[in-house]
């Protein structure tokens, strides 16, 4: 079944070209089906790219998903045209009276700030509180995972001496957890962050379980035992070129950035990188949609 997105969203043409089944709102209204209502709070600066990444992942299940895009009122994006935001995005005051089956909160390039210093922190806290009573399951990605663990459980973050940047091998602590069903014993995940959370802080919280981690990249996947929250510290949704684009962007800024680990063939940035994490990325999102959203949400969501 397709992912249901607004007519004329830029991601539509990209996904169609990749032969990914998507459906516009105008077509979906003629189907007699109750789609899953999914809300995406997009905190990334280049929102159109992130939309495409996430919609690609959400399209590969038998479930029809109706997507609503959300941005913050307390921060104005400088890297996305205002016309795009006005056309395709809602603000919290426009959706807070509704209920959703699932919520995805993306990462954001604000890791080196204290959470309380982020200009939309109060608004994000309000949304996370609202989700407790209006969303069946929330998926937190990268910085949002750190923010959610800090806000809900008091888990701190720590600044790294060097950016965690590249493709890292991960293993499963609990292969029976539904979120990692059908995962291989070892799998690859992209990371791109300057901070980390630590296992010693998480294991102090009885309601949390570390499902997957990496010897090099640390904690990757955490779930709460009530199946309401999933925290993902990496960027499984990234496409093949994303780390390359981030590397070249930082070089152009004159930043001291290392070549992404285990990414370019032979660690040579002139070579074209391979995408070696796509299957597990697809499983991650489809497992979340199936076992944590679809299987748990009521048919009459209201």
Q: Main traits of this protein?
A:
302 residues, alpha/beta, Rossmann fold, twelve-stranded mixed sheet, 10 helices, 30% helix, globular
In angstroms, what separates the terminal alpha carbons? 23 Å
CATH architecture field: 3-Layer(aba) Sandwich
Strand content: 25-35%
What is the CATH homology-level superfamily? Class I glutamine amidotransferase (GATase) domain
Percent helix: 25-40%
**CATH structural class:** Alpha Beta
Secondary structure tally, helices: 10
**Count of distinct strands:** 12
How large is the radius of gyration? 18 Å
The secondary-structure class comes to alpha/beta
Biggest sheet features: 12 strands, mixed
Which consecutive residue ranges, at least 5 long each, have pLDDT under 50?
Answer: none
- What is the overall pLDDT average? 90
Number of individual domains? 1
What's the CATH topology label?
Answer: Rossmann fold
Globular, elongated, flat, extended or rod-shaped: what is the shape? globular
User: What are the secondary-structure elements, in order, as H or E?
Assistant: EHEHEHEHEHEHEHEEHEEEHH
């Amino acid at each position: 079944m397709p992912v249901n997105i607004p007519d004329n969203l830029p991601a539509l043409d990209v996904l169609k070209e990749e032969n990914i089944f998507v459906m516009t709102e105008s077509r979906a209204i003629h189907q007699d089906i109750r789609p899953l209502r999914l809300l995406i709070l997009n905190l990334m600066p280049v929102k159109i790219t992130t939309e495409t990444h996430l919609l690609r992942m959400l399209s590969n299940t038998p479930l029809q998903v109706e997507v609503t895009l959300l941005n913050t009122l307390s921060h104005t994006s400088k890297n996305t045209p205002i016309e795009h935001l006005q056309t395709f995005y809602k603000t919290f005051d426009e959706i807070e009276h509704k209920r959703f089956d699932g919520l995805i909160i993306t990462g954001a390039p604000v890791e080196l700030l204290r959470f309380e210093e982020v200009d939309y922190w109060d608004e994000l806290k309000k949304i996370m509180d609202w989700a407790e009573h209006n969303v069946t399951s929330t998926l937190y990605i990268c910085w949002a995972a750190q923010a959610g663990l800090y806000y809900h459980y008091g888990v701190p973050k720590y600044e790294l001496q060097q950016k965690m940047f590249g493709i890292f091998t991960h293993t499963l602590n609990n292969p029976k957890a539904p979120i990692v069903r059908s995962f291989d014993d070892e799998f690859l995940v992209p990371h791109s962050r300057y901070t980390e959370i630590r296992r010693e802080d998480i294991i102090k919280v009885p309601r949390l379980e570390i499902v997957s981690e990496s010897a090099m990249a640390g904690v990757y996947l955490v779930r709460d035992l009530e199946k309401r929250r999933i925290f993902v510290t990496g960027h499984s949704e990234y496409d093949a070129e994303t780390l390359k684009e981030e590397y070249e962007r930082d070089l152009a800024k004159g930043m001291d950035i290392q070549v992404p680990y285990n990414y370019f063939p032979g660690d040579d940035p002139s070579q074209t990188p391979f995408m070696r994490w796509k299957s597990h990325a697809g499983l991650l999102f489809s497992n979340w949609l199936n076992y944590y959203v679809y299987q748990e949400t009521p048919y009459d969501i209201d």
